[in-house]
Amino acid sequence: MIKEWRIASAALIGLSLVASSGGAKDLSAGLQKGKPDLKSAGPLAFGPGGILFIGDTQGAALFAVDTGDRDASKPGGKIRVENISQAVADLLGTRPQQVTINDVVVNPASGTAYLSVSRGQGPDASPVILRVGADGKLQEFGLEDVKFAKANLPNPVSTEAEARGQKLRGESITDIAFLDGRVFVAGLSNEEFSSRLLAIPFPFEDLSEGAGIEIYHGAHGRFETKSPVRTFVTHEIKGQPHLLAAYTCTPLVKIPVSELKPGAHVKGTTIAELGNRNRPLDMIVYQKDGKDFLLLANNSRGVMKIPTEGADSTESITSRVEGTKGLAYETIKGMKGIMQLDKLDSGHALVLVRADSGSLDLETVDLP
Amino acid sequence: MPRVALLLVALAPFVAGAGPDHLEVRWKVSGDRHLIEVAGLDRTALDRMRAADFGASRWDALLRVVVRPGEGPASERRSMLGSYRVEDGLVRFRPRFPLERGLTYEAVFDPSKLPGAGDREPDAPPIVAPLTLEAPSNVATTSLVRVDPAVATLPENLLKFYLTFSAPMSRGQAYDRVRLLDASGVAIDAPFLELGEELWDPSATRLTLLFDPGRIKTGLKPRDEAGPALEAGRSYTLAVDEAWPDARGRPLLRGGRKPFRVGPADHTSPDPASWTIRAPRAGSRDPLLLTLTEPLDRALLGRLVTVLDREGRAPLGRIEVGADELRWSLLPDAAWREGEYRIVVGRDLEDLAGNSVGRPFEVDRFQVDPPKERAEPVTLRFRIPARAAE
Question: Which of A101, A223, A282, A354 to mutate to test the interface with B (most CBs of B within 10 A)?
Answer without folding.
Answer: A223
